[in-house]
Design goal:
alpha+beta; Aminopeptidase; five-stranded antiparallel beta sheet; nine-stranded mixed beta sheet; 408 residues; homodimer; Alpha-Beta Plaits; 16 strands
Chain lengths: 408, 408
């Protein structure tokens, strides 16, 4: 049996051209959501979609869809991901899934293939959540889990609002969010972890997405002179923040398994060598594939924080930035990935996703699934993020195979 | 016996007028060294000095001196402090000592008094060290412990250099640093700690200044995805920084006595909720009145950092920002403070200074001492820093008494 195959060279060239946008001096990319770099990327994507004859629509939260018509007027098969990055991001996180989808559609064009169902290529707004919380903002609005008004009002780390920034870059589109109803959704993505590389496998069939709990803690202590304030009279916000960060690590170690915990942001005020910090702001990121364990981790941390705050005479305010329960993809979607991989002679295994993705939001409204390809060194959210060309090509071929199977 | 007394109302009015410069919206002051606010303060001080008939000179590091002539051509008695503040500073730290000196000289003028020795009022550059390290930069250059070239080359937290900023604000003066040789030096200052208030005393006779060790640690780990990177494969700079901050507290608690330890600055890169920090920069401030104990504390911390870095697979570079051994003031200078206080009916006790001061640098070149007045709540380096008017007046009267005694 022969298959339609994607054009690997063309996919790599598109990735290279696109990644000139927001390129960082030392490698990697910065295309924070709704920034000028994000706008440039959106413009290029729309241009490329139109070159392939796709019908482009932009909805009110800035999600971009390119529709390839099918033989029948049915709900489309949807594939896609996102083009925004974290502040010091890599070349593939998000972008690969979008451009591999584009490549799959161009390959169908090249083959003169007509599918029964239409196929929609999606690029969702603000998947990373680095500038605006929660992450996966665009897909959350798409599935109706977050209202447009609430989304517009969200303020970013720089104080700008989602609504203002969407209008500023010209991507507050006319389409109603959720207007396009997907028959099914597949998202191709780099693994962002070390498992496939360790085991020498090409394809990951993603069973589900870890539950995620993001919170921001604001610690109010009392600033004072670092030399003349005896230790017993201190209410040191920096010390309290440090103890909390150490506790996050301790919880992750003690729980083991898929539990992870990270303090990625920590800011002190006034932030001077000889002044006891009067205020600290920090984030905590906890994830587990098991919801009761994730709740345990949250409770353990909350208890520790409350006891520590009482002991040190500081106040701690905790604000939830995002909370998602683990998502389990339908068994048929997971096994379909392995079947298509096998049909193309590619090795695979099942594994969970440690990272959040638009696919977990799409799972609320249609059968959804994900395909992973290996990340060298497990690196992601890192300028040295890398996946070898052979694996990029393999993943795109599996995506094409899944489109053909679902849309036929 | 009657004494010449200072004019308390005039002193308070001068403090109020001066503190309009760099006033923060919620109270307190920001006059970082060599900033525009510092320049405005310098301009006002020079104006006031000239109004009293003092001979004003500015040296090449920006130290300002106002000289009141004596009956004989002898080395002057010097009093003074500094007018710069930390980023969120109070109204009295530094400024009080300078304006109380000015008030003492005006009171001598009012009384038509002639002293045998001249009296010099000094305002030293960058005492706080918040913008440029090391602290007490102006007095260090004055006593010859730091060359002018080395001082000019120092870069601040905003990247600007001392030399450029001195020239920019017009205070790279013509006088040679150290040209004025003091017969003796007294510095009046708020305590910045809670001891005098706790014991209901008016005056502190400062026995010496705690030794100080400031270092900056740069931790290089590896950034990565906060969800997909297993705990065992992390090289998390934020976690390492947090463990170090907790260790600083542990050392201070275990040593007890006058040992203090503070992490006042801690910055993470990239500083995002869902990215493991690849780099952390932090400062450590350790102080003790006992030099061998201070060295023990430094060694304990260095050992902990080395073991932690090896265990977590990160590199840690440690750079000394400042290091001063404890300073013990001459017994005659300490007892003179208590004698003058007693003669004016003021209660006093001896105590060490937990903070660094220009007086500890001046102690290298002439008999030096300090007078403390109580800080309400022990607060300093804090916008709520406060000393009651009665105590401000008492301290200025002791300063005047010491000038009369040393200059007669």
């Amino acid at each position: 049996m022969t298959h339609t195959s994607i054009n690997g060279g063309r996919l790599l060239r598109r990735l290279e051209t696109f990644n000139e946008i927001g390129a960082l001096p030392g490698g990697g990319n910065c295309r924070l959501a709704l920034s000028d770099e994000d706008r440039q990327g959106r413009d290029l994507l729309v241009t490329w979609m139109k070159e392939l004859g796709l019908a482009v629509s932009v909805d009110a939260i800035g999600n971009i869809f390119g529709l390839r018509a099918g033989a029948e007027s049915l709900d489309p098969v949807m594939v896609g991901s996102h083009i925004d990055t974290v502040g010091t991001g890599g070349r593939y996180d998000g972008l690969y899934g979008v451009l591999a989808g584009l490549e799959a559609l161009e390959s169908l064009n090249d083959a003169g293939a007509t599918t029964r169902r239409p196929v929609a290529l999606a690029a969702f707004t603000n998947e990373e959540g680095s500038r605006f919380a929660p992450f996966a903002l665009g897909s959350l609005v798409h599935v109706g889990a977050l209202s447009l008004d609430d989304a517009y009002a969200i303020k970013g780390i720089d104080g700008a609002s989602v609504g203002d920034e969407l209008r500023r870059i010209g991507y507050a589109g006319a389409a109603r969010p959720g207007a396009i109803k997907a028959h099914a959704y597949f998202e191709l993505h780099i693994e962002q972890g070390p498992i496939l590389e360790d085991e020498g496998l090409s394809i990951g069939a993603v069973e589900g997405v870890q539950g995620l709990s993001w919170s921001e803690l604001t610690i109010e202590g009392q600033s004072g002179h670092a030399g003349a304030t005896p230790m017993r009279l201190r209410h040191d916000a920096a010390y309290v923040a440090a103890e909390i960060a150490v506790c996050v690590r301790r919880i992750a170690r003690e729980f083991g398994g898929y539990q992870v915990g990270t303090v990625g942001r920590l800011e002190l005020q006034p932030g001077l060598v000889n002044v006891i910090a009067g205020r600290a702001t920090m984030t905590v990121d906890l994830r587990n594939i098991d919801e009761p364990l994730l709740q345990d981790a949250e409770a353990r941390l909350a208890t520790f924080v409350a006891e520590l705050a009482a002991r040190e005479g500081v106040s701690v305010k905790t604000r939830s930035l995002a909370r998602f329960a683990p998502v389990i993809f339908p068994e048929t979607m997971v096994s379909m990935v392995q079947e298509v991989a096998q049909a193309r002679g590619l090795s695979s295994r099942r594994l969970p996703s440690g990272a959040g993705h638009d696919a977990q939001m799409m799972a609320r409204v249609c059968p959804s699934g994900m395909i992973f390809v290996p990340s060298v060194g497990g690196l992601s959210h890192n300028v040295r993020e890398y996946t070898v060309p052979k694996d990029l090509e393999a993943g795109a071929n599996v995506l094409l195979g899944l489109i053909e199977r679902l849309a036929r």
